[in-house]
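User: Please predict structures.

Assistant: First:
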Amino acid sequence: MNRGRADGHTIRPLTWLLLAGLALNLLLVLPAWWRDGQVGSVWFAPEAWLLPALAALLPEGRSGRVLRLVLAAGLTLAIVAGISDGLVRSVLGRPLNVFIDVLMLRAGFDLIEGSVGLWAAIGASIIVAMGVAVVAWAVWRLFVTAASSARRPALLLLALGLIASLPWAASYLPGVAPQLPGMWAQQVEQFDQTRRARRELIVAEDAPAFAARALPGLAGRDVYFVFIESYGASVLDRDRYAGRMVPYLERWGERLDTTGLAVVSGRLEAPIRGGQSWLSHTTVLSGLTIDSQLWYRMLQARDIDVLTEDFRATGHVSLNLAPAIVDDWPEGERLGFDRVYAAGDLGYEGPSLGWVTMPDEFTLHTFSENIRPRFDAPVFAQIALISSHWPWRPVIEPTPEPSRIGDGRIYERWHGEGGDPVSLLFDPAAQREAYLESIEYSLEVTFDWARQLRDGALLVVLGDHQPTSVITGRGATAAVPIHVISTDERLLAGFERRGFVSGLVPGNDGQAAEMAQLRHWLRTDFAHD
């Protein structure tokens, strides 16, 4: 009888420790499954067993409670960072960088608010905060429970975790991998990359390669840079899209040719994926790879000349059409634009279309009809098109008679079409179809607008970044298509020397220059008559 009671007292603490280890193990390996895209890629995290055992072995009293609290806080942060890393990789196609990604919390809130509404954004924020609180509470309770466990079971689990952590043991046990050391090493590497990027930005401030330089080869000509939201190279490389997109581009290439326009196309490596379009815009303007919000802010805080200064020295007026901007945007002036036309400056009286404030067709039409005629001097215009922004609903059709576009009320019939954007989150096939339709719409209205080009104007159409991994699949590059269009073939010669091919379907030799090179190419090709 006494033996049975003893066994019962031994089993209970061991059971609690096992449950704590299983719970923590699951919390640590789930982010790895998300990151790797494979359930079971890792199934055993030794620290999930080491830490509860260590908590059980710590002394009683205040010092033990403080040490357990430190362990619990550290493990909670690691779990939250692991989940965040999976999210960042899924959306932006890169690892989490805790030093800079905290700056993106507001952008995430704004995206949800613009797509689904303010209360949805507030609700999502509350859910995230509650999730972090629940994880913190659960980890703390597991550690407190472990503290009441017998020491012999704790020593057994401690030994198990230590053995599983050894490299020689892990080599014989597939799926066994410590998670915390990898997370720590990843953030150390991210910190080192952050430090190097900061140094490059400081050096660029005094480098001749970034000093303003006139481009007489473009003097007297309008130059337009049109960024198409989420237009990535995956539409050409993935079979599910290429079978439809390649013939589409070929047809439009023939139409532009009959209009007398010369076209060459290539690929550029964007600095980001999945979002943060303004970083690609700023990369082109600066000639520097701006791949985080931190570098975006640092660039504006330093005295570095950008492409707008090159065009000012050439005699151009620099314009920025930014229909996605709904708040004050002092950054536009810091980036050297003479005029910024945000959403409220474009005269749109039609309905919002999901996250999209106005259709691309309206933006281009308004520029040609109402904005460009205001300036006698040649203009350099950066135009951001946003109809192909997530959640890709509703997708509207081009207006057969552009003269009827007016103030945009013609689009009222599309208000509320396309269903609930949230439902797309749970239907990847529907997301992919909606994405492709929206890209076709944006390209359709852009190429149709391009047929109005006259007087040797230069038009550069390019994607700002690849869409999320739901659309591209895992392992996709950061490449985006770029099309250079003009009535003057001579303007395209430099691009052809760099491997651009005739037409709207770029080649794919496996290499793409960085997007930051575009500014330097213009300076190389057009800084001399």
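Second:
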Amino acid sequence: MKSFLKYTLASIVGFLIASLILFLISLAVISTIISSTDKEVTVKSNSILHLQFDKSIPDRSSENPFANFDFAHFKPNITVGLTDIIRDIKLAKTDDNIRGIFLDLSIIPAGYGAIEEIRNALIDFKKSKKFIISYANYYSHGSYYLATVADSIFLNPQGELAFLGLRSEQLFFKGALEKLGLEPQIIRHGKFKSAVEPLTNDRMSDANREQLTTLLSALWNHMLDGISEKRHIDKAELNRLADGLVIRNAQLALEHKLIDGVRFKDEILTSLTKLSGVSSQKKLEFVTLSKYNKVPKAKKGFSKNKIALVYASGEINMGLGDNETIGSEGLSKAIREARQDSSVKAIVLRIDSPGGSALASDIIWRELSLAAKVKPLIVSMGSVAASGGYYIAAPADTILADATTITGSIGVFGVLLNTKNFLNNKLGITSDVAKTNLHSDLGSIYRPLLPEEREVIQSGVENIYDVFLSRVAEGRKLTKASVDSIGQGRVWSAADAKRLGLVDLIGGLDKAIEIAAAKAHLKEYRIVDLPKVEDPLTLLMNDFSSKIKASVISSELGNEQNIYYNLKNAISRQGILTRMPYEINIY
């Protein structure tokens, strides 16, 4: 008995000590985050804006303290959103203390839509006649495309420049599922609705290969147009360099005029010293994006007129959503708030989403349709606005897409996973059911669908597809037949989407805001961001465990973490979805 009490008491004391330690650690984390985010930054004269894009670039900067902390390495990890990046580059254009921009590049873990908007902002920055210098140890396709706006592009003498053309690689899990005894039961509409292919195929279907090749070609040609213009190299020559594997090292990149020089980092710093007008490298003043974002903005006259900038980022699900997903209730509430606020004169919906739940998409569509009846509604598409992401865009007065946006994917599919063989044969687990009616257990993961049940679900998929067509046809003033002909789940590039009537204009978020202001007849206005961000402490408590897990996964798997998430998402998606095919990762 004494031993029992001794060990019990020891366990209680251990638990209390561990809780105290965890509490103190949490306080330290919070203090570190607050100290790193609250201080205003003063920019010294002759400073250089140092741009590194080595972290993901969400549309909106996060107010969540844990979103800005790297738990794998236990240090602050400030992520600046795309809208703030664009605003900071605009500010630097007229900031007398900023002499120029240093692009310190490598692989950019962001969609091509984000890269396109940053590139356009840098092109506008150059009107100030301030310098832009780019340097890298390694240029990916995306980072090199961004770098071509610079006055000079430099590469480490032993560095590399990827210039091979674009590719999109996919993983297929059919064989693994068969070995495990897991049976995906698929119901879909749309010959291009290939979101389910990783579960059912061991290679791309012909239709999927066709749409991806068309998409990649459109994106590659757009990038080549930009590179050709800035580097004064003919597109045919650029394709020859790619096809011939010509750019094998830094010296060959220089010989073929893709870069302006090979340099070590210290030599770049020497050049920046001269350009910034300081006497030595020790006096070089760099200001990072995370710091420059804290520079006090010039106060403008207060305007009672508002334009609501509503962010819709991530997969579309039922519920409230969070910083990384779109929730039907959370986003609908934000849209309703903007509609009912008389001081909000126009709404800009920023979409970066591959879609998701069909029902959630329709709930959001309804709120947007109501909003479009009483005030201008403009959609700005980011890197991806497809399937459910396009569904919610349909009611807009005007739809803008970045030149590199992936959109369309008008199609529907359903997934039910039959785990019976896996549980029985692999784990020795059986299941049984008591029910009042023949189909009371429809949707159970412990048995296969009956033919009549599959027919019912197929009917539901067809009905949702028909509604999808109607929503798009109504919003875009097209016939259902014409929408169907360009639907079938096929993804399109922005240029093709514009040609087909799915998109009105090619342009970024700033252009969308300008159009919203013009349609609302506003000369003076202020931007309000929606949905409103919860207070940092609430976000901190809600997101603690998930951020630790995500941080560790990112630290351990790096760029290959997509494999983990793709497999996890492919297996977990069940029900009827309006979602883009898997994850289209372009390299």
